[in-house]
Amino acid sequence: MNPAGIILVLSALAAPAAAPETSGNVAVLSKARGLLMGGKYAEAAAIYKSLAATGPAAPLGLARCYAAEGKLSEAREILTRALESLPKPSPIYAPLHSELARLAFERGDYDEAKTQADKAVKLDDGQLPARYVLAELHRVAGRLDEAEQGYAALIRYYNEQDVEDAESLRWIGLAAARYAGWNRLHNQFKFLVNELYPDALKLDPAFWPAHYDAGNLFLEKHNRADAAREIQAGLELNPGAAELHVAKAELAAAARDFEQAASSIDRAIEINPKLLDARLAKADLALANFDVPGSLKLLEETALPLNPLSEETLGRVAACYVLLDGPPKPGQQTRFSKLVKSVTDRNPHAGDFFSTLASALESRNKFLLAKRFFAKAIEVMPREVGPRSSLGLLAMRTAEEDDAKRWLDKAFTIDPFNVRVKNTLEVLDVLDSMKTLETEHAVIKYDGKRDELLARYVAKHIDAIYPEMCGQFGYKPPGKPLLEIFSSAKGHGGHQWFSVRLVGLPYVGTVAACTGCMVAMASPNEMEGPMRFNWARVVKHELVHVITLQQTHFNIPHWYTEGLAVLSEGGPRPPSWNEMLLERVPAGKIFNLGTINFGFIRPKKCDDRQMAYCQAELYVEFMLSRWGPGKQRKLLAAYADGMDTPEAIKHALGITIEEFERRYLAYLGKLVDGMSALKHPSKASLAELSKAHRDQPENAGAAAELAYAYLRRGAKKEAGETAEKAIRLKPKEQLATYVIARLRLEEGKAQEAVELLEGSLDREAPQPNALNLLAGLKLKAEQYDEAARLYALGERLDPINRKWTKALGRAYLLADNQEKLAETLSRLAAFDPDHITVRKKLAEMALKGRDYAAAAKWARQAVEIDVMDAGLHRMLAEALAGEHNYEAAIEELDVAIELDPREPYLRYALADAYIQTNRPAEARKVLEELLELKPDYPGAELMLEEVKDQPKN
Asked: Which superfamily is assigned to 686-831 in CATH?
């Protein structure tokens, strides 16, 4: 970040060549300074202009007013003119040279910066801004020893003198932060944020740069809470400080709130269009939006003109070159290689350049290249700790945990205040305490005390599905996928550890995620109630990401890997997705391939992310239905070759992306048209419905809609009157009849309500509210068959609405229609892959009906939601035994006994399974255990007698 210039103590500035400063002038200058510090630049500038002849404070203040708004040429002109008007150099004008040095350094004019800084120091050795610039000039030229000496000199100045102005403390703080990082003096961080910057604010409560610098230190350490506090405190002092708005944008981007980030960046540019940090942040946002050409254009047109030598800018430019031109090859002359040479020729220790390059590449999942350039940053600039932290965190993403620990240990020793590093090292400690299960197709880490059983079942699941998945996509990753399952440890829940494993911070909102090289998951054993999830489904979803990300060298766009992953789960679309489609497709409020990725990373509405998942799956479904699975692989290959989406679509499908989108929209339209034949009440406001009724007083439908709106608001009188009018216009208007029926029910006239509804219901096109109410009244009257017929009608005509299926199931349950109940519950289960209760019920019903295949299916699916439920394993074992699959039944009974060792029936069933597999010795052992547990268990003695004399197998 660029340091903002702040006015020095005014009493020290009095030019003998100008009119002497009077007490009145000092007061006016103090007022101007207050306006400047508060961001009221125009008002401050007007005062400084009126005091131009009173000494150096006025031109210095005026120049800073201009600079704060990006008027850099005007600022330099004011300072230069003031110096040229002097008959001879004067120490009290040294601050003007310092300011010129700072401005020159920020625009990359290093020769001019040195000239002006030398003049300032020659006139006044206490010019700390100039001395800091001189140290920075050494740093950007690679003269690290000289730079370090310069930073140390500023620290000595602080130690040897009483520093009594806030700005001087600021330059000392910047030097101390750099010196501490280079020399591993991590305690300086505490000193800066707890003493130096608070001291600056004590000297000058309006000195917002103290908050800004402290906020930046916290941002570097990924301490978002304290960073936010400092940034907000600074903005309260100066809402017009563009630097603070950039810092606020950086904080928002770290939390993936890109809308807030964009707003803060725009505000910063509005205040100061020539603030380099704001322009870099704008380019970073374009890169985060998958717009590499746009990012490069912003860098070349808006950032490089401000400072063509900035390593932070050039590192981003280099990353764009790599992303657009492909990875650099040894000896190849490219714009990338030329840029690297020009930077390293100027500064052989260009660590900032390589670190910035690596960070940008990592953000686009170019892990191997990012690793290479982080390592290069460490090589050329070993004094900096940042690249070590970044390399260690990157190694976590690529599942190289030993390397991660090595780098992060080094980084933490140097800087123990980096929150992500500290958290990640704690995760590594947790991982060290985990057990490892390696199978033919996976490596699983888990909590040996809590998740042993879960790990065994997950391993079995992966080994069963992974080969088929690799065959489906035509690619097998070179290494076994790593899955880490996190449970509570060290006082924190498994979900927190899962989140920290992924990003170093406990903020991830899902239960599982994939980096492309590994999968992390919060243990489902810690989830309760509606938080429970089908771990088998989730694991399969994430394994699709492992395969497709590696298959395409991480070039696959977010929408395609998610679409493939969701489709792999199987089952129908969730009802909520269908409801979104019904609402958004006709309104044109859907994503296209140019915007869908923002639905995942920058949702503007609460349902945008779910809509993105829904559309991603539908894009894949559409391609499969139109072109078949072969084109799926061809599209993956196109992404692997580095094509962007328009090129990939053209290559794989033979049509332009515009034609593809046109056909996709037609596909969506046809899909939505077939979703529901029922017309639900309007969602328009009461005012809109009132207007529609006034405009069409003879329209029965408009009157009915208004009556329904009145009813929902509790305006019963108006609802009844309007509904009666609708019925006069159209005697069997169903929605109006529903309103009247509801009012009759409140009057206790249930039979009249039923008669009204029966008389008006159109069974070819029923109004859903009326149909549901009539069905509910029939159910209450114990007319279960009629209620079921009505609910079945609703389900057939409105299949996306799960309420009909639920109600139908209730009707069949009350009617004791087991066959129909099982069919209905099966449909409910398909709608909700995480619903364990319905699966338990289906397994119980299937066992009772001796449908062992169905019982095994539903019990197995329930186990995939709660592997720790002994009853589920018992049911699964009974189903498997019913299918004569005794070996598998034995495995399930062993698990059930492990979970519920005091339940005698489990040992009895296990003994029987051993007998069925001709293993009498095992049967005898189990029966003896059973009789020790429960001596009088029915049939146990008899069974033991039967196997006593059987030979050992």
From this structure: Tetratricopeptide repeat domain (1.25.40.10)
